[in-house]
Amino acid sequence: MAGEKLYLSPVLDLFNGEIVAHQIDTSPHYPLVGQMLEQALSRLPEGAKPMLHSDQGWQYQYYRYRNRLEEKGLEQSMSRKGNCLDNARMESFFGTLKTEMYHGQRFASIVELSAAIDEYIDYYNHDRIKMGLTGLSPVADRNQAAAA
Description:
two-stranded parallel sheet; 5 helices
């Protein structure tokens, strides 16, 4: 695995911190963000028009990506260089993922690492409690809010 890289493109819902869509690939090319975007769009309630925050990575500047956002009436927000305020919650998630699942671990292959990331995101959404959500996981919080 030495020298190989994986790219993770997730969408985090600011309401409850849930990762509502993600894609993993060995290259930051259009399919990475395009497939992630289609996953996220499939989960949007009818008529929802959220703002998508991202960094200024070139993969989020693809014409096809920006055009798809526009088609769906979604607004894109990118921080200026050196200003991560728009993306601070996502950067916090990346820090948590690295601390809880990546650092100190050895992965035999990219496939193994990718599976571990998928497994962690499932755990993060369904089992990992957050004190800011009154001790609920993001999915449990969303379900509780929907039932209210």
